[in-house]
Every structure is written in structure tokens, then in C-alpha cells.
Amino acid sequence: MSGVVPAERRVPLVPAILAQARMELTLLVRSGESLIVTLGIPLGILAFFSLVEVLPTGDEPAVDFLLPGVLAISVAATGLVAVAIQTAFERKYGVLKLLGGTPLPRAAFVVAKALAVAALLVVQSCLAVAVATLGLGWRPAGGIALALALVLLGAATFTALGLLMAGALRAEATLAAANAVFLVLLVVSGVTFDASALPAPLALLGQALPLGALGTALRAALHGDGIAVVPTAVVAGWGLAAVALTVRTFRWEP
Amino acid sequence: MHESADTAAIEVRGLTKRYGDTVAVDGLDLTVEPGQTLALLGPNGAGKTTTIECCEGYRAPDAGQVRVLGLDPRRDARRLRPRVGLMLQEGGVYPLAEPGEVLRLFAAFHADPLPPDALLERVGLADARRTRFRDLSGGQKQRLSLALALVGRPEVVFLDEPTAGLDPAARRLTWRHVEELRADGVTVVLTTHLLDEAEHLADRVAIVDAGRLVALGTPDELTHGDDPEVGFSARPGLDVVDLSRHLGVDVVEQRPGRYHLFAPNDPALIARLAGWLEAHDVRLGELRAGKRSLEDVFLRLTAEDDSTGARQVAS
Q1: CB-based contact A10 B35, cutoff 8 Å
Q2: DSSP readout, B83-136?
Q3: Which among A98, A211, B24, B76 could bridge A189 via Cys, Cβ 3.0 to 4.6 Å?
Q4: Averaged over A132-158, what is the pLDDT?
């Protein structure tokens, strides 16, 4: 046995991240429950409430009101619910621990997860826009690029919130909490119906929470009203807080 | 012992790790030469997993030093991880993923991996390639975990209880893979609480109890003491006080039905033992004299009330 230490072996970083992102995306799509939440619920809301006017959506056509809200819901469903639950169970089953022992750097792992979320959101957004345009007669009033940027900002915020739960709570607690928070957000955020139908304090609360703020910002963007500063800042603020907390509290081990 | 700090694959010096008030590892020293297979043997809670996880970089030692391939497992993790393969005690794989997918994923983390398909075949998972991890048998799961540890052509492999929960046939298969690693010159550290596994696989066995190293040596060194002893098995619950008096040597029942005589193997002693068994109408199960089994060593070393005997063998 010679005492020679072999040359350092480099990690092929880009292929490693792409392979990890592909695995993340495969698993997000493979889990049926997750698909119902990420695709079924938003598209169902869009189609049903556009065609059946039971919710107060103001004077404009229902789809004009609903599409921005549904995009916001998609972002929350993927980032908050699907990612939180998937990651929580990855932690529970020791997947995160074993990955932590491979050459894949932790930052690269987070990038891969973000890529998978982004890819899924592109599909969700395209589907929602396609349903709205082809089936419900929606016509964009501009602001597409801004809307895309807002979707990505929202994705970062909700994914950070999802990871915050997944890295701190038990998997079963994350499962319950993610769904409960999602439901509460749906009710108070004014994304599926006009928030002015809610009692004023509740409506205000909804706009202070990231889903309501994201919905309002997206609505302004797609109505061609440009950047809605306060809602955008609310989304970004939640995101920064979630990232700061997640970095401090995230546990990789079961 | 030929221990030299320059070439050691793994070097552990004075490793101490506490969890709250519990001392999990208490000043452990260990050296593994390149290409050697070391078995960490000990009862549950002895500190085996904590020791191995300090080597893997999962735990920061409270005191002492750990070097793997001359590197610090935490500080130098980036340089070390491409050269190390590891298998956790359980889990570690996406339940919904297929073996082929997971192995290809782990292969993508390495510059020069083993071809995933050939490796799947080697560990006998070719037929289970498209079966989701959660639907694999316990043995198949363990073998996939082993393949994940090997796919990067590691120089050092850590296996935490690689055969836990496996049936005998599956255990033999895992043994064969570990033997192949040794033949390839890979350094292997494995934990086990199975004596025959340690005896079969390891170049050296480190017996750990209550966070301390109580014995270290080749299986031969550990089983050939200076003072060969006599042991026998019979029905449990014999009157060892009376037997001790009759033989004039100390007798203990180590485990139900397994008795140990603290005396050299001497024909007169055996004759007296046979006489006592006849007088009490006890049928002899098994009689051992001379070479101790690793089990004897282990039981003596890890018995709570026998810590003085442990020190002698450890020296």
C-alpha cells in the first residue's frame, strides 16, 4: 500500500445540480396528493368560479379578477404546501441526512429545489393562462414580465416558508400545518373573491399576509397598473424573514 | 500493531461526545490503516453510531480529534466527501424513487462514478430497477444503500449496521460485497452487534462499551488470551455457588444456560465438572476449552460488573 494520496476529485457541480433538480421535480409530479394541490386546486378554482359567479369578484369579468389570484394560489400551493410536505418527509426518512454526506453541497441542494419549484410553476402558470385565455376569454392587459417576476418572488417567499416548517417541525406536523395555513390564507387573502366582502380587519390581515399581498400585486401587474409597491414589499418582507429564520432553524437530520 | 500517523486512513484521538448529561463517547482512540476493515462491535448504546458519525462529519466532537484520509471531516468536508462512501443505519432514500433513479442521481455527484446499471446488477437489484424504494424488501433496501455508498469509487466506506434486519442469506450477500471492498483495497469501518459478523469480516475488531474502547485487536488476538478458559452450556439456573465450591474455581452464568469457569483448562477440573453434572443429573450442551469465542470476550468485556477484566485484554 503506497502512502500516496490520490488527486482531489472535483464534484461536477452543474450536472449534480441538474440531476438533483430533476429528481426533485420527478418526485413532486409523482406524488398524486401533491399534484392535486399544485395543479388541481388552482385550476379548479379558476374554471369553476369563472363560470359560476357565486363569489363577489367586482364589476369586471370574473376571470380578470381570478387569474392573478389563481397564479398566487399556485405559487403558495407549490412553495408552501408541496415543498414543505415533500421536504419534511425527506428529512424524516433520512434523505436529507444522506444527501448531506454526499459531495453535493447544501447550497447546491437548495438551488436544485428552487429549480424544480420554478419548473413546476412555469407549467402551472402556463396552464392557468392557457385555461383563462382559451377557455374563459381572458386577454392580458400587459404586465406579463412583471407578473413573471412576481411569481418568482412569491415562489422564493413561499418556498422559504415551506422549508421553515419542514426543517423545524416533525413531518406529520408539517403536513397538518402546511395544509391548515394554506386554507386560512385562501379564506382571508381575497384571492378568489373581492376582499371587501370580508370584515375590514380580516381584509387588512389578508393583505398583510403573503398570499393576499401577492394576489394584489399580480392583479395590479396584469391589469397594466405597474408595480404595487406595498404588496410587493410585504411579499419580499415575508420572504426575507422566512429565509433568515430557515437558515437558523433548519435541521437536516430526522 | 503497526500504527503510523502518516499513512493511517482514519485516526481518532481522544474522541469525546456528549448529548446533554450523557457521555456517548468517552475519550476513544482508534486507528485504521488503509485497506483495512475495522468492525466497531458493541451493545446498543455503546457509542458506535456516534463514533462513526463523528468520522462522517455529522457530529462535531466535544473533545479530541478525528482525521479521515488526513482531513477533518467537518472543516474539510468538501474535499473529503468525494472520497468517502457512507451507509446510514436506516433510510436515506426517497420512498417514491426507483433504485435506478437514485443510483444515477448519486452517480451524478461524482466525477468518475461506477456505471450505475452495472452496479445495480452487482448488488442484485437489476430486477428491482423500476420498483419504488418503499416497495423493496428490507434486504433490497440495504443493498441499494450499499450501492449508493459505493457508486463514487470511495477510498473509505462507513457502514452503520449494514446487515441489521437482514435474513441470513441477505447477510451473506452483504458480507460478500464488504469482502470485495477489502479485496479492492478500500478502507472499511462498519458497526455491528453481531459477533460472527465482526469475526468474519474484520481485520481488526474494536469492542466498544459505554463510549470507551475496551478491546482492540484482530479476531485471533482477541480470542487467544494468555489464560485459556473453560466454558460450557447446560440448562439455565444451575446452582453456580455449589458448583464453584465443588470445583474450587469461580463459575458464573453469563447468560441463561451459558456458564464460564475462571480457571485454566486442566483435565482434573474437567473431571470434577463432569462429576458434578452427573451428581445433579445435568445434561451437558457444549463444552469449550482453550480458544475463547469472540462472544466470551465480548460478554466479559461488556458485562457491567466486570470492568477490571476489560482493561487486561485491552492492553
Answers
A1: no
A2: GEEEE-SS--S-TTS-HHHHHHHHHTTSSSPPPHHHHHHHTT-GGGTTS-GGGS
A3: A211
A4: 91
Question: Can you tell me the ipTM of this complex?
Answer: 0.88
Spatial CB neighbours of B189, under 8 Å, sequence gap ≥ 6: B10, B32, B37, B38, B40, B52, B55, B156, B157, B158, B159
Among A47-51, A63-67, B7-11, which stretch is predicted with the lowest mean pLDDT? Answer: A47-51
Say if A237 falls within a structural domain.
Answer: yes
- Asked if A100 lies within 8 A of B97 by C-beta distance, the reply is no
What are the residue ranges in chain B where pLDDT is below 50?
1-5, 305-315
Q: What are the C-alpha distances in Å from A1 to residues A94, B14, B203, B261?
A: 35, 27, 15, 43
Q: How many structural domains comprise chain A?
A: 1
The mean of the pLDDT values for chain A is: 89
Q: Do B108 and A97 touch (CB under 8 A)?
A: no
Structural domain boundaries, residue A113: 13-249
pLDDT on residue B2: 45
Our CA-based measurement puts residue B315 at a distance from the nearest CA of chain A, in whole angstroms, of 27
Contact A232, A238 (CB under 8 A): no
pLDDT in the model for residue B292: 67
- Type of residue numbered B123: V
What's the length of chain B?
A: 315
Cα–Cα distance for residue pair B12/A244, rounded to 1 Å: 36
Q: Can you give the three-state secondary structure of A89-116, one letter per residue?
A: HHHHCCHHHHHHCCCCCHHHHHHHHHHH
In a domain, A7, yes or no: no
CA A37 to centroid of chain Cα atoms: 11
Residue contact B185–A1, C-beta within 8 A? yes
Residue A93 to residue B91, Cβ atoms within 8 A: yes
Cβ neighbours of A97 in B, within 8 Å? 58, 88, 91-92
Asked whether residue A2 is domain-assigned, the answer is no
Give the gap in angstroms from C-alpha A87 to the nearest C-alpha of chain B.
Answer: 10
Best to test chain A binding among B105, B114, B130, B131 (most A CBs inside 10 Å): B105
User: Does the residue A198 lie in any domain?
Assistant: yes
Which is it for strands B37-41 and B204-209: parallel, antiparallel or unpaired?
A: parallel
A134 or B102, higher pLDDT:
B102
Q: Which pLDDT score is estimated for A37?
A: 81
Residue with cell 416497495: B135
Return the ∠ at Cα B178 (arms to B150 and B197), rounded to 5°: 140
Query: What mean pLDDT do residues A24-47 have?
Result: 87
